[in-house]
């Protein structure tokens, strides 16, 4: 058959061999894109499996160091620390106690793995009896009363050696207030990774089992964003950048890739996406049934999060991916 003018561009030409496909691939996943979340608890020699998240556990610091050693050996270079407290109250004091579990974990990790990029989640929900992300007054989540407490929490993590503090509470102005507190205390180089765009989401379910942070009353709809809103994401993210956020995050990831893409086009700061607990659990559950190919599905999912515009991806799959010694789809 002679080529007609519309037949010059054979799209399949560039797909004809693996080598060629590899050379023309636009986006690649790299170990440096991946941050592994770690749940840390008080005590010694503790590993508490999380039922809804196969392969993930709450760990005491000694066990955490062992797991982290494996992670680092397989090429892991960064993680996010979530602290769980046995001593919950209504003031959030446990969240910023210098003797608290998160500062202890940060110090131990930094001592053993000084190069490891350590992000600490800054919130109150795991430390407050009612499980909300802010201080409750008169039955409401009091934005401005929460700000100084969050600043104390962030400061305690910075003092322990966190590279980036990551407020996940969604109170207004917390980025500015935290930045000021860090600067005033000389932590000019401690970065701020803001959970700028965090939606109210059913995908957080398994995390709340892990962190025992399900709200005892009401829901998080007065502070987390409505899934129907996209323009509001721009408003939130621009405000956080103006307040001093170094990196902004979108959360959850897969159902919100339009938001990742929109922020990528609007902002110059790096964008992070959190592939959250429920997104992890869905893949794990289907894989356990033998219904999907876990490795292929994980790599495709994360590659697409990166293609949408995320520079950093927080994912519970990071340790598996590095263990598989795979980053690319073949
Ligand atoms: C709490 C917090 C949540 C997550 C991170 N920090 C849950 C929530 O807002 O209820 C979700 C993480 C995940 O689901 O993996 N501030
Ligand atoms: Zn919270």
Can you tell me about this structure?
There is one protein chain. The protein is α/β, with parallel strands linked by helices and 330 residues long. The protein has one domain (28-324): TIM Barrel (Alpha-Beta Barrel). It has helices spanning 18-24, 61-73, 93-96, 101-112, 143-160, 174-184, 205-211, 231-243, 257-266, 277-288, 294-308, 318-324, and strands at 34-41, 47-49, 57-60, 78-83, 117-122, 136-137, 140-141, 164-167, 191-198, 247-251, 271-275, 312-315. Strand 6 (136-137) and strand 7 form a beta hairpin. Bound molecules: ligand PBG and zinc ion (ZN). The site of ligand PBG has 12 residues, from helix 7. The site of zinc ion has 5 residues, from loops.
